[in-house]
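no rush on this but wanted to send it before i forget. theres a chain ive been looking at and ive put its sequence and its fold in token form underneath. please have a look and point out which stretches look like helix strand or loop to you. thanks a lot i owe you, the record is right below:
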Amino acid sequence: MMTTEERVAWLAERRKGIGGSDAAKVMNASPWGGPHKVWMDKVGLAEEEKQTEAMDMGLEAENLVAKKYAKKMKIDYSQIISVPMSRTSAIIDGVPLVANYDRIVVDEEGRWLYGVELKTASFRKASDGWGEEGTDQVPPHYMFQCQHYLMTSGLKRWDLAVSFGWRYPIIYHIYRNERLIKAMQKRYAEFWGLVTTKEPPPVDGSEDAKNMLNKLYPGQKESSAQASPEIDELVHEYRQKKSLLALRQGELDETINSIKELMQDTEVIYGPDSEYTIRWKASMQGRTSWLDIVDELSIKDEVIKRHTKKTKTARKFTINFPKE
């Protein structure tokens, strides 16, 4: 497991190129972010990623999963080696690529045979895009990660060993897909061009794009300007889409209210074969009345003022139309 200093060095090294965990994000196929998030990281706009408890558990479990993988595959554990990142970097078509391989399986002479990616996941994730053991039917973000490693290593095969609920790993075999690798290299080149020029990726409706814009343009206090023709055109588009959304929301709310009317006082409804669960329940919420506490303690206004800190929040976006 990496120390804090090792992790800082590893993150710094990873920012120098596109890594395996970046692959699906750059290809816009990851549940954990998209190209805007990776771009912010590479140009130094992203906040440092904190090591979570789940990450710590995953790292600590690597050796255990690797041992179980070796036993299941009937290979000697000594043939499964770790490789330093200094041996896994590559430059392909002018794009720097970095990779952090979990393990490499070697033969008696130490020659690389194929790679292994080690994962842990909860039981509830077992149905999220995972196919039969022994196939290459894995969620898209893991497919892109393994193809990235095949691209940087030159190997033909990468195994994905997943321990669901700390059970013996389920093993998938990912083989080199030249067509997919070429598509990734093309997208990598386009994306890295944006990194080197520090030109942001085209915006979309994602939360990452919103965060990127807040980082790039924190705003100037009390600044104002007349709308450009481009902004004016987009505002009209916004108004049309908002009207359509309000219509659809009204239809959705009507359906919800019809369900509530049929539920009456029942709090939970189960669908056929547990296909869905409907809950309409009241919840108890606690709220601390700080003003009452201040009054009861007779705290002076100047004390409250002295300990009140103002922090700048992200810019709030609104469009207001005169009432018609």
Notes: The CA atoms of residues 26 and 289 lie 46 Å apart. The mean pLDDT is 87. The longest helix spans residues 229-263.
